[in-house]
Hints:
Number of strands: 13
Number of domains: 1
Number of helices: 1
Helix content: under 10%
Distance between the termini: 11 Å
Order of helices and strands: EEEHEEEEEEEEEE
Mean pLDDT: 95
Strand order of the largest sheet: 2-3-1-13-4-5-6-7-8-11-12
Amino acid sequence: MDTDGGGWTVVYAIDVNNNRQGLTSDTPANGDPLLFEYYNRTRAQKMIVTARTTESLFYRENDTWLKADAPLFDANLDTPDSHMHTAVTLTANNDATADGFLGYANYNISRGGDYNISMVDGNTCNGVTTMGVDHHNNTYYHLNCGCQRHYLYSYSSQQADDDASYKVNTALGSWSATASCSNNELNGLVFYAAMR
């Protein structure tokens, strides 16, 4: 790939269909990620890539992308009841930048909230965020109240089945918003996630 200088290893991709596990899932899927087919590596594989990388990329099917100056995960992804918050600088493909946080939870995600890219700390409709998230609900741990302040969020409250659909509440340059707060498990953001 030649995106932003190339060298990316894709570990996840999602399409518009239902029954898609989230970024923190341990269940492999073998579609072609560069065709935006559903694709997922195991947690162990993701941790191997994480240990060797310093940047993350979220690449949408409309050829816009968002880059963070940290890996997608940490060494605890496969440890039960783990979650992570990392301060990052975010850069969109049109050079818009912002400070923020990325993070994950591998528990309390039956209704979404497994992964977030968030603004710097601020108020949501249920309190103040800490390192990007407000932890206001134990069934979607990394989803802010009202999906507020998220450059990427997952929310699937229709069924508590651990599958995910990702949306964008807050735009950053060319990284445009898609839904202010949608729990629809269909027709979410189509993208792949990679590290280098």
